[in-house]
Design a protein that fits this description.
By secondary structure, this protein is an all-alpha fold. The chain contains ten helices and no strands. Helix 3 crosses helix 5 and helix 8 crosses helix 9. Pfam families: Ubiq_cyt_C_chap.
Length: 175
C-alpha cells in the first residue's frame, strides 16, 4: 500500500473485490448483440458508449439501496476508480500522451455522470423516453433500431435491478 493511499484511506484490496463486477460490466457491454442487432456502432466511441451505458445502469442500482447498505456507496466509488483506471490505460495504449490524459479522463468521467443522470430520468418513462436518451447519448449506426435498443436497455435494467447486492459484487448478475 502506498503512503498516499494510506493517507487517503483507500485500500487497494477494496477495489480488487469489485473487479468481478467491473469485468461483468465490460462483458455485457461487449456482447455482440449490442452491435450486430441493435445498432451500437462497433467503434471506439460506440464501445465506450456501451460500457458507460451498462456501468450507469449498475451505478443506478447501487444508488438505489445505498441508504440500507452504506457499503454500496463505497462500492460505487471503487467501481468508478476501476472505470478510470481502465479508461486511462486504454487512452495510453492508443497513444494519448501524459499531458492530455488527465483532461480526457475528466471528460470521460463527466460523460459517465451525464449518462447516469439521463438514464435515471429516462428509466421511468419507458421505451419512448429511453429511445430519445439513447439517440442523444449513443454512437449508433444508420441501421440502428432505437426502439429495440431502448427495450434491450430496459430489460437489462430490470435484470440488474432484480439482482441482490451480493450478486452485483460477485459479477453474477444478468446472466
Amino acid at each position: 500500500m502506498t503512503v498516499l493511499s494510506r493517507l487517503l484511506g483507500k485500500r487497494p484490496e477494496s477495489r480488487e473485490a469489485l473487479r468481478p463486477l467491473w469485468l461483468r460490466v465490460v462483458e455485457i457491454a461487449r456482447e455482440k448483440r449490442w452491435y450486430a442487432e441493435l445498432g451500437v456502432a462497433d467503434t471506439v466511441p460506440g464501445r465506450f458508449d456501451a460500457v458507460t451505458l451498462v456501468l450507469a445502469l449498475v451505478m443506478i442500482r447501487l444508488d438505489r439501496d445505498k441508504d440500507q447498505d452504506r457499503a454500496l456507496v463505497e462500492a460505487a466509488a471503487r467501481l468508478t476508480e476501476l472505470f478510470v483506471d481502465d479508461m486511462d490505460g486504454q487512452l495510453r495504449q492508443s497513444g494519448v500522451g501524459d499531458l492530455v490524459v488527465g483532461k480526457r479522463m475528466g471528460r470521460l468521467v463527466s460523460v459517465l455522470g451525464g449518462r447516469i443522470g439521463a438514464l435515471r430520468e429516462a428509466l421511468p418513462t419507458g421505451p419512448f423516453g429511453m429511445t430519445a436518451v439513447l439517440e442523444r447519448n449513443m454512437t449508433l449506426t444508420d441501421k440502428a433500431d432505437p426502439v429495440a435498443l431502448a427495450n434491450a436497455v430496459l430489460t437489462l435494467h430490470r435484470r440488474i435491478d432484480a439482482a441482490s447486492a451480493s450478486e452485483l459484487m460477485a459479477g453474477t448478475f444478468a446472466r
